[in-house]
Predict the structure of DUF1320 domain-containing protein.
Amino acid sequence: MAYATIADLRGKWSTEGVNLLAWDDAAEAPDETRISGALDAGAAIMDSYLGRRYKLPVLAQPDAAILLRGLCCDLAVGQLANTPAARNEIIIAAEKAALAFLRDLSEGKATLNIIPSAEAGTPIGPDEPVLIDDAGDSLRRRLRRL
């Protein structure tokens, strides 16, 4: 799933910066395919972390969507800056921060504001009891028959 567009990437990291990182000398223009590939790679990295706790594709509320968009842009610019000459401290720090936050999300130390799916039903509050109905044979019943 695409969390960010090329326009988002250029908006966050500047058109000049993105064009410089994706410059194709033969075409004398930025390689848009390479930029799209970097965004796809960033989204794939994000899904590998988000998939541990959230159903993919992640349908986030607007505030979480802004967060995911920024994370994807930071990971994508890290993908574009794939040579030592292109990588600078700002890009490295942004990529590390994005990965650290994704790690926190996957470990439950952080959370996203997620739109529940239609089949999720009515959410319950933290103080409401949860009843679990086991239609099958319970462990206690099976042990009694031994």
